[in-house]
Amino acid sequence: MFSTFGTLFRASTFGESHGRGVGVVIDGCPARLPLTEAGIQPQLDRRRPGQSRLTTEREEADQVTILSGTQNGLTLGTPIGLMVPNRDQRPADYEHLDTAPRPSHADFTYQAKYGIRAASGGGRASARETIGRVAAGAVAEIFLQECCGVEIVAWVSAVGELDAPPVDALRIDRAAVDQNAVRCPHAETAVRMIAEISRAREAADSVGGVVTCVCRNVPVGLGEPVFGKTEALLAQAMLSIPATKGFEIGAGFSGARMRGSRHNDPFVMKDGRLGTLTNRSGGVQGGITNGEPIVFRVAFKPPSTIGQAQASADFDGQPVTLEARGRHDPCVVPRAVPIVESMAALVLADLVLIQKMRG
What we know:
Blueprint: E1 4-5, E2 10-14, E3 21-27, H1 37-47, E4 65-68, E5 70-71, E6 74-75, E7 80-85, H2 107-114, H3 130-148, E8 151-159, E9 162-163, H4 174-177, H5 187-202, E10 209-216, H6 230-239, E11 244-249, H7 252-255, H8 260-263, E12 267-270, E13 273-276, E14 284-285, E15 288-289, E16 294-300, E17 310-313, E18 319-322, H9 333-358
Antiparallel strand pairs: 1-2, 2-3, 3-7, 4-7, 5-6, 8-9, 8-10, 10-16, 11-16, 12-13, 14-15, 17-18
Helix pairs in contact: 1-3, 1-9, 3-9, 6-9
């Protein structure tokens, strides 16, 4: 099983949803980077369950412990081990699912591939695996801030059929994003989104959504031609997040409906450097960053676990009726915001180190 992401800045996550804990080992992080548990915890707090009625009721503090790789608040250049214990496991909630794969979950595919699976909570397919990603991403963000001043901000731009108006990607910050439980910076739309998620919960159902992300102050020249393109790596990173089903950058799919004369980004002088007048390329041209903000969107499907009884079949093909008993999010996008930011940070940190290696 491939559980490592990155080439030079590498993050290897471990642990299952209802095991003793989850975490990550980071290899390739430069030495003398300021790093403490307090610097990592804020992003884990934004990801953790139980934040509001919009999320799962599982109660986890998600307190991170640095096991290795630092001394006196500085990284040593050696592997960094980060660990978060699981405190509120309830494997008994899944005992009735031992013989039947849940609709649209990874139960069937894991069983078919390995001949065994973690029977409770989805194991490695659980969103709890993303704790390691967020912890590693927090370290990557510290590196990016120290070396380049990179800023990464994500927000909820859609829930179900509700779309928020466009925001100023040059000025949006995490304080504006976190001003409400759904993490949509447009207050009026946020109220409607919260109501939509609440309706889905009351109906024992779920709803999907979209997270938009901007990466600012990204250096020009990151990304490798052909197969190591920046947008290709971002797409891989985002589509590796549980429940993701779509990725687009810049104008995205709407660009396919434009003429080239409208889609092209003309070059102009901006603050003493060559830049583009528009940013339909999303900050990447030819797979290489051009100095404009990287702007992309990630689509998340409705969570597969719902409270309604569902007709399905067991592993022997016999008809069964399944009803979930666990605690699950009616919509994942509010908690997905820091996960998207973290995966973007891991991609950019890796590309920065690759570029530095080139000299």
